[in-house]
Amino acid sequence: MSYVTLEELGRIAETELAAVNKKLEQGPLTTKDRMAIPQQDMPVLEPRGRARLMDEVAMGYTSEQAIVEAQRCLQCKNQPCVNGCPVNVPIPQFIAEIAKGDFKKSVDIIKTTNLLPAICGRVCPQEKQCQEQCTVGKALKDVEKSVAIGRLERFVADYERENNLQTLPDIAPDTGKRVAIIGSGPAGLTAAADVRRDGHEVVVFEAFHKSGGVMVYGIPEFRLPKTIVSQEIDQLKRMGVQFRENFLVGRTGTLMQLLEEQGFDAAFVGTGAGLPKFLNIEGENLIGVFSANEYLTRANLMRAYDKNADTPLYDAKHVAIVGGGNVAMDAARTAFRLGAEKVSVIYRRTRNEMPARREEIAHAEEEGVEFLFLENPTRILGDEEGRIRGVEALSYQLGEPDESGRRSPVAIPGSEHEIPCDALIVALGNDSSPLMMKTTPGLEVNRKGNIKADESCATSLPKVWAGGDIVQGAATVILAMGDGRRAAASINEYLKQA
Asked: Which among 340, 341, 247, 330 is positioned nearest to 293, based on CA atoms?
C-alpha cells in the first residue's frame, strides 16, 4: 500500500463522517451501512525518513477517523470480541461512546478492566485476539478489515492523557495486608493495580533501575514511547503503589525472605522470560554477535541511539537478524536507527509463516529492511581479529506441517552460501531465568523452566502466585495482563480469609 499523509487521511475521514452523519439523519445505521464503511488507515510517519528517527511511527487516529471507525461496530449482542480479549475489556460499550463523541466516558469503560490502554492499544496483537473474533472481519473474510479495536483503544487513552483528564480508580480502605509484586512488566503492573484497588499495601520490586519491564527494555521507542509507560506507572504511584528498583529478587533478597522476614502476606511473581535463546552454532562467540535482548536493551533502556548517553554502541553497516517474530522486527528497525546502511532479516520459512504482526512486517519492509526467506545460518564467519564478517547459510524448502500447524523447513543439501554482514542479532525467543527456581525451595517448574501455576495463577507454594511469561513462556503484553488480573483476584480472595 502506498504512503498516505496524515492530512489526506484526515480529509478522507471528514468526507466519510459527513456521509455517515447524513445517513444518521434518516435513522439508525443498518448492518449493511456499517459494513460498507471502510476501515480507517492509521496515519504514520513517512517511511524512509522515519527509519532514522526514534519518533513514534504510528501517529494515532484523528477524532474524525475514530468516530467513523467506531460506526463500523455492529454492537453484537453476543460480544465475540470481548471473549477474544484476555482481560475482557467491554469493547462494544467503549466503542459506542466513541461513536457518540464521548471519548472520556469511553476510556473510563476500558479502565474498568484494563488500566494500561495506551500501551495495549499500541503493542497488543489485536488481530490474533479481539479483532480475530470481530463479526465485521469474519463477514468480510479478512481479519485486517475487522473493526480497529486497538487503534480506537489507543485513541481514547491518548485523548485522556493529552487533555489531562486522568482520574484514579476507587481504592478500598487500607486492610493492613501487604503484597509483594516481583517484576514491573505488564503482568506485575496489572496485578499491582487490582490488588491495590482492594486496599492492600503493594510494593513492586524491579531488578533494573527503571520500572516497566519489557515495555521499557524490549519494545522500541518508535513503537511504544517510554513517556507513556512512565505516565502509566505514575498513575499507579498516585494510587499508592510503591516501587523499589535495583532489587533483584533471588540476589538482593529471596522471595521467602520477603514473605518470612519482611512481613508480606502474599507475593506475585511476574519476572518475565529474559534468558535469550541462541543458534548454538560455530562462531556465535565472535565480536559483533548479539542476542536481541542485549541489542534492544542497549537501545531502549540505555538509549544507545542518544549521543549524550554513555552506552557503548557497536558500529555496524550491514546488520543481519535471525528470526521472524516481533522482536526480530524490532531489532531490524532499530538497526537502521542506530546507523546501519543495510539490514537483512534471515528467516527459515516464508512470509506466510512469520509469527510477527503483519503491521510490523509491513513497517519494516517500508523502511527498507531486506527479507531473506527460506534461509538459516549454519555457522558464523569471522575475520583475523575475531569479528564477524558474515554467516554461512543453507537454503530451505517447506515440507510437512509441524505440531503447531506451520510447514516445517527442510534443508536443501549443497545449498550453502555466504551472507556478508558485520553484526548479527539472534532473535529466536527467550526462556525463563532459573534464578527464581534456584533460590526458592519448593517452587515447582516445568521442563522448560517455567513456573507451574493453576488457573488462578497459584503456584506450588502457599502465598505465592505467578503469571505472564515466567509461566507461559514468551507471550504478549495482554496475555500477561490477563494473568495479572486472575492472580490479583485470587490474592484478594485469599487475603479476605487470611
From this structure: 330
**Cell for 225?**
514511547
Question: Which 8-state DSSP code applies to residue 415?
Answer: -
Q: Distances in Å between the alpha carbon of 439 and those of 163, 182, 259, 274, 435?
A: 46, 14, 14, 17, 6
* CB-side neighbour CA atoms (13 Å) of 419: 30
Residue by residue, DSSP assigns 230-291 as HHHHHHHHHTT-EEE-S--BTTTB-HHHHHHTS--SEEEE-----EE-----BTTTSBTEEE
Cβ within 8 Å of residue 112, ≥6 positions away: 90
Burial, 426: exposed, middle or buried (Cβ in 10 Å; 0-12, 13-18, 19+)?
buried
Are the CB atoms for 363 and 335 separated by under 8 Å? no
The rounded distance, in Å, linking the Cα atoms of 119 and 110 is 12
Q: Are 99 and 157 in contact (CB under 8 A)?
A: no
375 pLDDT more than 80: yes
Percent of the chain with pLDDT over 90: 88
pLDDT band (50, 70, 90) for residue 240: very high
265-295 per-position pLDDT tens digit: 999 999 988 889 999 999 999 999 999 999 9
The DSSP code for 299 is H
Amino acid at 402: D
Q: Is 261 exposed, middle or buried, given 0-12, 13-18 or 19+ CB atoms closer than 10 A?
A: exposed
Cell of 318: 550491514
Strands 388-401 and 370-373: unpaired
- Average pLDDT score, the chain: 94
Query: Is 227 exposed, middle or buried (CB count within 10 Å of its CB: 0-12, 13-18, 19+)?
Result: exposed
CB within 8 A of 53, min separation 6: which ones?
45, 222, 337
Sign of CA dihedral 191, 196, 200, 201: positive
**Amino acid sitting at position 320:** A
The grid cell for 15 is: 468526507
CB 465 within 8 A of CB 443: no
pLDDT of residue 406: 79
Task: Kindly give, in sequence order, each residue whose CB lies less than 8 Å from that of residue 421, ignoring residues fewer than 6 positions away.
Answer: 316, 318, 319, 320, 344, 388, 389, 390, 391
CB 122 within 8 A of CB 153: no
Q: Residue 469 CA to chain centroid, in angstroms? A: 12
**Widest CA span of the chain, in angstroms?**
77
Task: Give the amino acid at 132.
Answer: E
Per-residue DSSP letter, 386: S
- Name residue, grid cell 470480541: 81
Measured distance CA(332)–CA(352) in Å, rounded: 18
CB 122 within 8 A of CB 154: yes
Dihedral of the alpha carbons of 431, 437, 442, 448, in degrees to the nearest 10: 20
CA distance 216 to 438: 26
